[in-house]
Prior knowledge:
2 copies of one chain form a homodimer. By secondary structure, chain A is of the alpha/beta class. The first copy, chain A, has helices at residues 22-37, 58-66, 82-95, 122-125, 131-146, 150-164, 178-182, 211-214, 253-265, 282-291, 300-305, 322-326, 330-346, and strands spanning 4-15, 46-50, 73-76, 101-109, 186-188, 191-192, 201-210, 222-230, 274-276, 359-365, 371-377. In chain A, helix 5 crosses helix 10 (282-291). The two termini of chain A are 19 Å apart.
Amino acid sequence: MRDVYVIGVGLHPFGRFGDKDVIEIGREAVVAALEDSGVAWKDVESAYCGTVFAGPMAGNKVLARVGLTGLPIMNLENACASGGSALRLAFQDVASGFCDIALAFGFEKMPRGFIAGNPNDWFATMGMAVNPQYFALNARRHMADYGTTEDHLVRVSVKNHRNGALNPYAMYRKVMSYEEIANSTMVNDPLRLLMLCAPNEGGAAVVVASREAAKRYTTRLIRLASVVLKSPLYGTAEVPYIAVSSQVEAPSVTRTASEAAYEAAGIGPGDLDLVELQDTDSAAEIIYSEELGLCGRGEGARLLDDGATEIGGRLPVNPSGGLLSKGEPLGASALGQVAEVVWQLRGEAGARQVSDARVGLTHVYGALGNCAVSILQC
Amino acid sequence: MRDVYVIGVGLHPFGRFGDKDVIEIGREAVVAALEDSGVAWKDVESAYCGTVFAGPMAGNKVLARVGLTGLPIMNLENACASGGSALRLAFQDVASGFCDIALAFGFEKMPRGFIAGNPNDWFATMGMAVNPQYFALNARRHMADYGTTEDHLVRVSVKNHRNGALNPYAMYRKVMSYEEIANSTMVNDPLRLLMLCAPNEGGAAVVVASREAAKRYTTRLIRLASVVLKSPLYGTAEVPYIAVSSQVEAPSVTRTASEAAYEAAGIGPGDLDLVELQDTDSAAEIIYSEELGLCGRGEGARLLDDGATEIGGRLPVNPSGGLLSKGEPLGASALGQVAEVVWQLRGEAGARQVSDARVGLTHVYGALGNCAVSILQC
């Protein structure tokens, strides 16, 4: 296999954009990534699109506005892991030598409110119709097992909103006080409104290339050391992951995917300088920190207590503001994380720059247990 | 790149199955392909699912019923080319050495009636809301340019229904007389109801493997010599391919995709023993025969006149009965073609067996111009 490099990233801001066409949102992200890379559109050899809500053949519609070049276009739908899945395929294409330059892109214009499950699923039948319900079970379980407190849940959100206030692509872009978060509407105990990420709109794109091709466009080589997609090893898989994550002996998919990504990259959690992970809610950041091996089981809240996950800390988590500040346009989410890591590794992250960042990890986890993890290195 | 082999194929019959769950339809196809291959499910290393109508994460739902093994699962939506796109990715996975055994599968439970376009597309705004309208324009154009007649359109359908009557997986499974077809309801002039394929339900799955892995399961090696996916080089691409196909100098995507597939396989149209192509309507079989290089431009109807495309002819086209007899469950369609070619190359096609078949081609073409072509060889 050949080494693969990220040579361009582009975002359409995450937020709400009125009547703006979702295809245009995607197009702007793609064009931004192409401009960032310096690659001419005609030289992109294959394209992988991740989206859940943009309708049939949405990737083709976006790329038709960039220009018809005949390249193969694959439209993927892998829930929250859609963008990560697109990146995995672009990575494979280049790593294997099928092509030299590939594009992964994703975009979304999501309905407002929380996503309801399929009413035919037993989960929904039992009254667990929307995500915050099982997010809350996860949180309560972690609190019961490891002493995580409501104070921790508030402070994750304070941190991520503080970071996101520095990110021009984030939806909220404002500092939220401890009191605002702690007093926001209770959604599912213990999770309050400002401890939950918002489904929203946005786009992201990433151009990857072989070493030889990359060197034609840049001298700042950022290696995409690994991208891994996994499905779960246990559970019912027709319903989302539930509160057993920190309890059962069978490893969670975040653990199996990240272990595979570390192994493929030859990089361990101790080598990481920053992490962008799936903080769909405040408790998720704590739980996934453990499952990604950033700390031991039950020690996620301690990372927060120690200040390790702050931008100035030992291992910054979600310096972009995470999903809590950016919102989560499903297809764009993972690729937005990759853009953040690339900017951090290039030293282009402005006021939220992590000093001396050389290795970063991204993580998304989706419904039915698809999980994508990537590791980047400069 | 490594050679790739098809070691198992499986179908769920194409047709209408009442309240039967689409996930169960998919599961039965996957299990049939696994049984045909002899591969244990735990040894499949990656899975690519093509479906348009089965809803979010449908591939994960199907495979959860087969067993949770943690493998990466990609859900693809590429319109009529969805199954061909899944096969392309499984092929790449094995050819590149990312894995030794991969699964491509697709399934569908489509709404009745013809598919209406997006009302925001100018095509629909202009009154071109459903497929048979532009199929009919293609047909009329070919008739005007090359002397193709309504008699030819009837006879394509007679041939394919005669073949499909011999196929236990086909929807209609019955011979249709010349008169029945010629007198069936006019849908869009010149295309009558029995000259159009029916959207329906069904499933198909294909197991591919490296040479080394394949030899553990079978001595009858059928090589998947190439799989190519292309998007169009001209047109508006937000609307389907229209009647200009046989006129403009820019090549159609069926031509560019098939030329790439021939080149990658080292096999030309003159080497083919049978073809399964996208006969969404009778005229399409004639037009695509030309675009696949089976004959010169404008000579498609002559192939029919010469009897070349009959099962006993020089180059049988759609010996399975094609979409006209089988119907078109989008995600399953291309993989159903591959199953037919594999059975033909193995000599397992029963009453519709093409004698001494050694090389076959499959072709699907989808909305917005995605086209997938594969070539198989024993």
